[in-house]
Probable cinnamyl alcohol dehydrogenase
Amino acid sequence: MEQGGKPVLGWAARDASGHLSPYRFSRRVQRDGDVTIKVLFCGICHTDLHVIKNEWGNAMYPVVPGHEVVGVVTDVGTGVTKFKAGDTVGVGYFVDSCGACESCGTGHENYCPNLVLASNGVDSDGATTKGGFSDVVVVSKDYVVRVPESLPPDGAAPLLCAGVTVYSPMMQYGLNEPGKHLGVVGLGGLGHMAVKFGKAFGMTVTVISSSPGKREEALGRLGADAFLVSHDAAQMKAAAGSMDGIIDTVSAGHQIVPLLELLKPMGQMVVVGAPSKPLELPAYAIIAGGKRVAGNGVGSIADCQAMLDFAGEHGIAADVEVVGMDYVNTAIQRLERNDVRYRFVVDVAGSQLDATA
Ligand code: NAP
Ligand code: ZN
C-alpha cells in the first residue's frame, strides 16, 4: 500500500475461504501517463475464484479480485492524449509489462516475464495489485482500451478477459475462417464467448459440454450448430476427426484424449482453461494424426482492442447476470456450482461498497 495514496473502497478476500468483504486501501496517486477510472462494472472470472480460494497456491491476501473492468475516465495524467474524462474504457488481466523483453518487443506483452496482473500481481514498486472490485482504478494509458459505444457496458466487461482469451488464439491459429469447424469445450464465461466469435467468423461451431441442460440455449440463443455431451461416448465417437480446432475452457480436471479424438489430422487444440489438477497427455493422442496442443494466456493489448472493435461492429457482448456487490459471495458459490448463464458482472458503481453482506 502506498502511503498517502488515493483512498479506495473495495471488496477483498482475506483467506482461502474466499469470502469477500469491504476493504479500504489506497492506490498510487495518478502519475504522468496514468488514467484514473471510475469502475462501473466488473465481471467475475473463474480465475478470480481460483485465486481467492488459493487453488493455484499464489494468493497474496487480502486479494481484491476483478480483471474485467469497464469504467469511465475521470482524470488523466500529463502526456495522456488518447483518453479524456468521460471516455468509456476497459481494463483487463494485466496493467503493466517491462516493455523491453522479446515478448514486449514483438507485441506479445501478455507473455512478458514481468507482467503485472491487475489483481493479485506484483507492481513495479513491489506493491500487491488490487483489482476491479473497487470504486477506482489507476492504470497506465498503455494498458487501457477503448470500449465501443455500441456495446452495453455491463455485457462488455467480460470481453476484457473472457473475450480476448478466446478471440486471440482463434486469430493466431486461423480458427476464424468461414467454414472451418470449431469445437468449444465448456460452456461458461469463456466458452460462450468462443461460440459467439466463432459464429461471427462464419464457422461451424460445436459445443462439447458436461451439462446436457445447456443444449437448448447453446443451439438456440447462442447459435451453435451442434452440441455434444462429453460423457456420451457414442456422441463423441460420431464426431471423431471432424474438427479443425478446439478451444478447451474447462476450469476443472478432465480428460483431454477424448477431445483430441475430435480433431482432424493436424488439428489444433488450444488450452485456455486452467484447472489446478494437471491434464494428462499421452504421446499417442497427438502423434497419431499429428495433432497440436497449445496454451494461450489472455491476449495482447492490441488483440484486446481489435477484439473489442470487432465485438462492437458485430454486436457481440457477454450474456450476463448483473449483481450488486452485496451478492458477490453468493455469485461466487453459484459460479463454483456451474450455475450461471454465462457470466456474473458486478454493478460496482451501483453498489454500496461499505455495506457488509
Ligand atoms: P466458467 O464460467 O466457470 O466456465 C467453465 C466451464 O467448464 C463450465 O461452465 C463448465 O461447462 C465446464 N466445467 C466445469 N467443471 C467441469 C468439470 N468438472 N468437468 C467438465 N467440465 C466442467 O469459467 P471461465 O471464467 O469461463 O474460466 C474457465 C477457465 O479458464 C478457468 O480455469 C479460468 O481460470 C481459465 N481462464 C484462463 C485464461 C487464460 O488466459 N488462459 C483467462 C481466463 C480464464 P459445461 O457445463 O458446458 O461443461
Ligand atoms: Zn479472467
The two ends are 25 Å apart (CA to CA).
